[in-house]
């Protein structure tokens, strides 16, 4: 080997030259170094097979239906090696009249099959269905295989255990299928959030709002706002590049300012929506029910309900009254805070107690009056809804009460008897209509351009940022046009974070972490 190296060196070197002064030394030295290293290094054992890391195992699998006894369970596999899973575990009969084998599936066609152990084909795990979705025409934009099984716990467990034995597969993380759909361009962030909300929808209002987001309607509205800002930015950038010369007509900067003002007004209108979208998607605060029954309730008891298509968290609080009981006073203070922070407050009073005794000294046929206890006066506002209970204990005053309610509280008050059930249907119907009126949640409002755009606090934060940057642009003097352009760029950037049109790595985890495994 050394003789060979000397021979090669003599070929390259000329009289008077050293190895390092040779003009081809840069190419020669690495070649010689490799030869020397090979010649003088002791023989190495071949590298052992290392277990592939999670990053290397790009094919994921998971149960995509809720666990439990049901008709069908779906196991989803997605990734570059999805077809290897089919070939290892799916056995279909050869289709008559074709040359296609059982291990070469036809895309988008569900097939009856046997699911077998990949290490022992004779061991059948289930008799089910399988379908192959060829990327990019799949949910994740990758190759996807779905196994439709009987949903017995033992069957599901055996199939997942068999998948775990395949060295190129790994179990999916929460939300990873949807994340791949996002990264593949199949969905934007608002559609991702809409899909999650659609899965979790429990009321009709939630379903409608989530469906609009999932099908891309919300994205289109955000994109329209962002496109408007980019249009303003294009005008301002043109001024920076060309100035007020022959190529740029006069008034371009004023047009950009006018468009920016209209966009700012539109965004502020969405922000001043009384949190309609967030309330529909998830009741984040309580609707507080206040009862003056002495001492019966000391802590806040909560119950979730669907009223008028809204997810309502009803909180039954301690009665508001003067008391020397330390524990009860703590409950009363909690009740006051619950009322003050609630989206809707419903004051429940005993009708017999609320009716004042008539004064017969001056009028032989006096009309009774309804009185709100003084302990509640500071909590009653024009928006407070009033419910009078125990109407069965004041049967002689029902007609009088109805007229009093209409004249004093309008349509935002009702009488019921929870003991007999009288009036409860009317109250629930009226309460639902009051909620829809308060937050503009009628069917036509949820199916039009007036539907709430903001459904998450994340959206609100980015829109508020966009407003600040638009206002900063409007406050920028014309001579500082470069700074104004930067403010517009920030505003477009803020709106882009809503739908994920920019680099939003910092918020991806927050969006996907609450998804169920297999979605």
Give a description of the structure.
It comes from Asterophora parasitica. Keywords: GTP-binding, Nucleotide-binding, tRNA processing. Belongs to the TRAFAC class TrmE-Era-EngA-EngB-Septin-like GTPase superfamily. TrmE GTPase family. The chain is an alpha/beta fold and about 525 residues long. The protein has four domains: about 40 residues; about 110 residues, Gyrase A, domain 2 (2-Layer Sandwich), CATH 3.30.1360; about 140 residues, tRNA modification GTPase MnmE domain 2 (Four Helix Bundle (Hemerythrin (Met), subunit A), Up-down Bundle), CATH 1.20.120.430; about 150 residues, 3-Layer(aba) Sandwich (Rossmann fold). Helix content is about 45%, strand content about 15%. The protein has 18 helices and 13 strands. A seven-stranded mixed sheet has the order 3-4-5-6-2-1-7. Strand 11, helix 12 and strand 12 form a beta-alpha-beta unit. Helix 6 runs antiparallel to helix 7. The longest helix is centred in the middle third of the chain and has 26 residues. It starts with a helix and ends in a 7-residue tail after the last helix.
């Amino acid at each position: 080997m050394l003789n060979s190296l000397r021979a090669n060196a003599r070929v390259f070197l000329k009289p008077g030259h050293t190895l390092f002064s040779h003009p081809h030394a840069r190419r020669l030295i690495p070649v010689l170094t490799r030869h020397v290293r090979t010649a003088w290094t002791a023989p190495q054992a071949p590298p052992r097979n290392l277990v592939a890391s999670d990053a290397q195992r790009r094919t994921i699998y998971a149960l995509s239906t809720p666990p439990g006894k049901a008709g069908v369970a779906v196991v989803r596999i997605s990734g570059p090696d999805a077809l290897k899973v089919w070939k290892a575990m799916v056995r279909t009969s050869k289709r008559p009249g074709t040359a296609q084998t059982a291990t070469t599936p036809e895309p988008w066609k569900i097939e009856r099959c046997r699911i077998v152990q990949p290490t022992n084909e004779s061991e059948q795990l289930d008799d089910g269905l399988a379908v192959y979705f060829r990327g990019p025409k799949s949910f994740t934009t990758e190759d996807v295989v779905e196994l439709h099984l009987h949903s017995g716990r033992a069957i599901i467990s055996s199939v997942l255990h068999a998948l775990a034995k395949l060295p190129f597969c790994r179990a999916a993380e929460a939300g990873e299928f949807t994340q791949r759909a996002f990264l593949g361009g199949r969905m934007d962030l608002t559609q991702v959030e809409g899909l999650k909300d659609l899965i979790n929808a429990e009321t009709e209002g939630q379903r409608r709002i989530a469906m609009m987001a999932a099908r891309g309607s919300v994205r289109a509205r955000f994109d329209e706002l962002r496109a408007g800002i980019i249009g303003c930015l294009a005008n301002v950038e043109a001024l920076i590049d060309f100035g007020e010369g022959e190529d740029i007509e006069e008034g371009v900067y004023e047009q950009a300012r006018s468009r920016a003002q209209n966009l700012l007004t539109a965004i502020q209108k969405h922000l001043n929506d009384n949190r309609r979208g967030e309330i529909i998607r998830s009741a984040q605060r309580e609707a507080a029910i206040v009862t003056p029954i002495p001492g019966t309730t000391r802590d806040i008891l909560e119950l979730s309900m669907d009223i008028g298509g809204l997810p309502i968290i009803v909180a039954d609080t301690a009665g508001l009254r003067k008391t020397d009981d330390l524990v009860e006073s703590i409950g009363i203070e909690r009740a006051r805070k619950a009322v003050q922070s609630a989206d809707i407050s419903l004051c429940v009073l005993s009708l017999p107690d609320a009716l004042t005794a008539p004064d017969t000294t001056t009028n032989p046929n006096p009309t009774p009056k309804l009185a709100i206890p003084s302990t509640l006066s500071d909590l009653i506002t024009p928006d407070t809804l009033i419910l009078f209970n125990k109407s069965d204990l004041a049967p002689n005053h029902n007609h009088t009460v109805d007229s009093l309610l209409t004249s004093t509280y309008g349509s935002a008050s009702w009488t019921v008897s929870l003991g007999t059930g009288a009036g409860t249907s009317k109250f629930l119907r009226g309460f639902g209509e009051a909620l829809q009126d308060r937050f503009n949640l009628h069917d036509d409002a949820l199916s039009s351009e007036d539907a709430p755009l903001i459904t998450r606090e994340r959206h609100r934060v980015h829109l508020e940022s966009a407003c600040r940057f638009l206002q900063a642009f409007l406050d920028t003097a014309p001579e500082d046009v470069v700074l104004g352009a930067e403010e517009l760029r920030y505003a477009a950037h803020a709106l882009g974070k809503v739908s994920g049109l920019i680099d939003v790595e910092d918020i991806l985890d927050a969006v996907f972490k609450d998804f169920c495994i297999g979605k």
